[in-house]
Specification:
heterodimer, A: mainly beta, 7-stranded mixed sheet, 11 strands, globular, B: mainly beta, 6-stranded mixed sheet, 4-stranded antiparallel sheet, 50% strand
């Protein structure tokens, strides 16, 4: 069982609101990732971190921001949500070397 | 750079049919290879993995063999069930990259 958790699972919010999607892992992994995924479609990496106080933008440009002030916690923030941000957001973490990534259950965000 | 190409879907099968999903990769060095499965509304779960050439990963009746000579990691299952309906992702991890590289995903639907 993977010990990586995302909250909330589902979120419906109005345009212009600020939101934070939470992601926590208890495995002590240095590397953490945020992906954006539309239903049944490919993953797009939007942010990653390879340790505390490190954050990098991914392959897909995103208006969201992330922070990593603790190893176990990697929250994603949208300052002003828009309908175009409607999507599923997946968090993942990975240990040292060529190991697999572990995924949270995802947050389904709907902006109305 | 590192990349993964997998068979496009969707794939629709009858129960007890044979399933193959093709996956080929481009990478420097000796990557680790993975297959992930995503059920509706969920995050990705690791299905199987292989870390070196000629390794065979297996789980829940699924198998994939790491073929360095053909740079492939095809997923197979001899007799699918309705419960195997999901999206399947091929992925690789290389020492020279903090990120995992994912294929675009293949949607599989098994009909009773």
């Amino acid at each position: 069982e993977a010990d990586i958790y995302q909250t909330p699972r589902y979120l419906v919010i109005g345009t212009g609101k600020k939101i934070t999607l939470e992601c926590s892992q208890t495995m002590g992994h240095d590397k953490m990732y945020w992906y954006q995924q539309d239903p049944g479609m490919e993953l797009h990496l939007i942010h990653y971190s390879y340790g505390v106080n490190s954050t990098e933008k991914g392959d897909l440009s995103s208006e969201s921001t992330v922070s990593r002030i603790r190893t176990e916690h990697f929250p994603l923030t949208l300052e002003s949500a828009r309908p175009s941000h409607t999507s599923q957001y997946l968090c993942a973490s990975r240990g040292q070397g060529n190991t697999e990534a572990f995924f949270g259950q995802g947050t389904r965000l709907t902006v109305v | 750079g590192n990349s993964v190409t997998q068979m496009e879907g969707p794939v629709t099968l009858s129960e007890e049919a044979f399933l193959t999903i093709n996956c080929t990769y481009t990478a420097t060095g000796y990557p680790s290879l993975f297959w992930y499965v995503q059920y509706p509304g969920e995050g990705l779960q690791l299905l199987l993995k292989a870390t070196k050439a000629d390794d065979k990963g297996s789980n829940k009746g699924f198998e994939a063999t790491y073929r360095k000579e053909t740079t492939s990691f095809h997923l197979e299952k001899g007799s699918v069930q309705v419960s195997d309906s999901a999206v399947y992702f091929c992925a690789l991890s290389a020492y020279n990259d903090y990120k995992l590289s994912f294929g675009a995903g293949t949607t599989v639907t098994v009909r009773a």
